[in-house]
Amino acid sequence: MTVSREPQPCRRRARDIRFHKEMAITREGFLRTLARALDGRELHLRQDQVMVRETDRCFAIRLRVQDAHRLGALRLPRLRVEFHFSGYRQSDADELMSHIDRHFQRGGG
Questions:
Q1: What's the pLDDT score for residue 55?
Q2: Is residue 29 part of a domain?
């Protein structure tokens, strides 16, 4: 994983793709898993935002720690994750998100 502290802002475009998720994971856990999911791409990290630049496009992820869910004595972390794809076709953003989602899936039983 390559992490840089100097992010290059994504250029905003009319057709940018945005969406968000709420995840039961800590910020640190999210960043570890994201680094594995992005297969060695360089991550630019600045406080609550991660940016990944490619040749003619980039995507940004904003992380917002939420109050934990409480189920009796159990506390589950909550993280609002906002995705912003700039310069991506919808099909490319969907494909990348499917790839990222697979890395965040947990087995259970």
A1: 81
A2: no
Give the residue numbers spanning the domain of 85: 42-102
Cα 94–chain centre separation: 13
Bridge-based pairing of strands 42-46 and 74-86 is unpaired
- Residue pair 45/31 in contact (Cβ under 8 Å)? The answer is yes
Number of domains comprising the chain: 1
Tokens of 50: 């991660």
Contacts of 45 (CB under 8 A, 6+ apart): 3, 4, 5, 7, 31
Q: Coil, strand or helix: which one is 91?
A: helix
Ranges of the chain with pLDDT below 70: 1-9, 14, 108-109
Q: Are 14 and 90 in contact (CB under 8 A)?
A: no
Judging by DSSP bridges, how do beta strands 2-4 and 42-46 pair with one another?
Answer: parallel
Assigned domain for 16 exists: no
Q: Is 48 inside any structural domain?
A: yes
